[in-house]
Design brief:
With 82 residues, the chain is mostly helical. It has three helices and no strands.
Length: 82
Amino acid sequence: MSELPVVRNILRSTLQLGSRADAFSESTPLLGHVAELDSMAVVAVLTAIEEHYGIAVDDGDLSAEVFATVGTLTTFVEGKIG
């Protein structure tokens, strides 16, 4: 089962996107395209993901590619939760 709906909801609540997040698909670009997603917001999104899934994300696991699109972020999460 895809974690896309959960990731979308985390983005919605963490970035306070409201109904804008409803249109997010796997191909929706994030970094550089969603104004609310700045460096501090990346930390907040990662913290929300860690808390929701009970996982730890190491700094070494991260790259700009993880936040390229909603799909790449979802794939990253799915890889972390196994």
